[in-house]
Amino acid sequence: MKQLTTKLFAAALTLAPATLFAQSDTATTEKKEAKKADQEVAIEANDQMQFNKKAFEIKAGDTIQLTLKHVGKLPKIAMGHNLVILQKGTNLAGWASKAMTAAATDYIPVDEASKKAVIAKTKVLGGGETDSITFSIKEAGEYQYLCSFPGHFAIMQGKITVK
């Protein structure tokens, strides 16, 4: 019995590296490459409730990678920031009023109309944190973005012009 166990163990050691490499090669070839963004946009939010960009332009249909960086020091519970891009024509104040009470969903309202109004959103970030989102807007026009953390939308908002 001991001899059989030793032989099985030796065989397993011999086969294990080949099996591992075969799985690794398969996993590598099955990975899908992410589409490179046509445009990258970086926006900073700070402890004074400000975005460093109030407006930017993009081309209709382009893939945009937007990175939000909270450059402040305060934690998420005290001075959290996110960036939410809303559909054209959304009532900003009405949407933000619903968002203030939606702490359980990172200040994104759960009713269907409010959810449909969101084109893209980052996570709520605390000081020193960063999040990136990728999105595309196909129709030209002006779109608003805001921080939906309670009380922030009045100051923390901006405009995307899609051409």
Features:
2 domains; single chain; alpha/beta; 163 residues; 28% helix; 4 helices; Immunoglobulin-like; three-stranded mixed beta sheet; disordered N terminus
Describe it.
It is globular, with a radius of gyration of 23 Å. The strands form two sheets. It has a five-stranded mixed sheet. Strands 1-3-6 form a three-stranded mixed sheet, with no helix packed on it. The chain is of the alpha/beta class and 163 residues long. The chain has two domains: 31 residues; 124 residues, Cupredoxins -  blue copper proteins (Immunoglobulin-like), CATH 2.60.40.420. It is 28% helix and 26% strand. It has four helices and eight strands, in the order H-E-E-E-H-E-H-H-E-E-E-E. The N terminus is likely disordered.
At a glance:
This protein has 163 residues and is an alpha/beta fold. It is 28% helix and 26% strand.
General shape: globular
* Average pLDDT score: 84
Radius of gyration: 23 Å
> Which range best describes the helical content: under 10%, 10-25%, 25-40%, 40-55%, 55-70% or over 70%?
25-40%
Largest sheet: 5 strands, mixed
Element-by-element helix/strand order: HEEEHEHHEEEE
Strand percentage, roughly? 25-35%
Quaternary assembly: single chain
**In CATH, what is the homologous superfamily of the largest domain?**
Cupredoxins -  blue copper proteins
The termini sit apart by 76 Å
Name of the level-1 CATH class of the largest domain: Mainly Beta
- The structure class reads alpha/beta
- How many domains, in number, for the residues? 2
| Number of strand segments | 8
Number of helices: 4
CATH topology descriptor of the largest domain:
Immunoglobulin-like
